[in-house]
Design brief:
Helix 6 (128-138) packs antiparallel against helix 7 (144-151). It is globular, with a radius of gyration of 18 Å. It contains eight helices and no strands. The N and C termini lie far apart (52 Å). It is mainly α.
C-alpha cells in the first residue's frame, strides 16, 4: 500500500483523478485487512469505504511522507474494524433488549426483527459499488457528486444507482416480510 508523492499532492490539492486513483488502488488491500477482522461482506466493505473517504477528504492534508500512508491506512483499518465489530456486538444486544421491551405489540416487534435480520442478506444482493454508494450517501453524508468522484460516474448516475439500490432493497425486504 504505497502512494506516490504525486498522488499525495493531487489528493491534497483536491484533484479528482488522484482521488479516483487512490480509491481504485487502495480499496482491495484495505478491504482485505477489514475482512480479516469483520469477515468478508458488507461490514468490511462499509468500513473500507468509510476509512478511504475519510482519508481522501480529511486526513490526507496532514500527511507529509507518502511512505507513511500505507502504515496509517493499515493501522486505521485494524482500529476501525475492531470498533465496527464491537459496535455490531453491542447493537445486537441492544436490539434484542429493545425488541423485548418495546411498546409495540408482539406481532409488530416480530416483524421488525424479521426485517432487521433480513437486511444484511438483502444488502449482499447489491453490487459492491451500490453498497459503497449507499454507505457514502447515508453514513458519510456525501453528495452524489463526491460519491461519483470516488466510485466513478456522474452525480446523475450515482442518483440513479442509489434509487435503484433502495428499490431493490425494498423489494427484497418485502419479499421476505411476513404479514400478520
Amino acid at each position: 500500500m504505497q502512494l506516490s508523492r504525486q498522488t499525495i499532492d493531487g489528493l491534497q490539492n483536491g484533484d479528482d483523478r488522484a482521488r479516483r486513483e487512490c480509491w481504485e488502488n487502495l480499496f482491495s488491500p484495505v478491504y482485505a485487512i477489514c475482512a480479516r477482522i469483520l469477515g468478508s461482506g458488507v461490514a468490511a466493505s462499509d468500513t473500507t469505504a468509510d476509512l478511504l473517504s475519510d482519508f481522501i477528504f480529511h486526513h490526507v492534508h496532514a500527511l507529509q511522507n507518502p511512505a507513511g500512508a500505507g502504515a496509517y491506512l493499515r493501522l486505521m483499518a485494524v482500529r476501525r474494524s475492531i470498533r465496527a465489530r464491537e459496535h455490531r456486538n453491542r447493537m445486537c444486544a441492544f436490539h434484542d433488549d429493545t425488541m423485548s421491551t418495546a411498546s409495540t405489540g408482539p406481532e409488530e416487534a416480530a416483524g421488525y426483527r424479521l426485517l432487521q435480520d433480513r437486511l444484511p442478506d438483502c444488502l449482499n444482493t447489491l453490487t459492491p459499488k451500490a453498497r459503497s454508494a449507499l454507505r457514502l450517501k447515508y453514513t458519510a453524508r456525501m453528495a452524489n457528486e463526491q460519491i461519483g468522484t470516488l466510485l466513478g460516474g456522474s452525480k446523475q448516475y450515482i442518483g440513479r444507482l442509489l434509487a435503484q439500490s433502495l428499490e431493490q432493497l425494498r423489494r427484497c425486504l418485502e419479499k421476505g416480510a411476513v404479514t400478520p
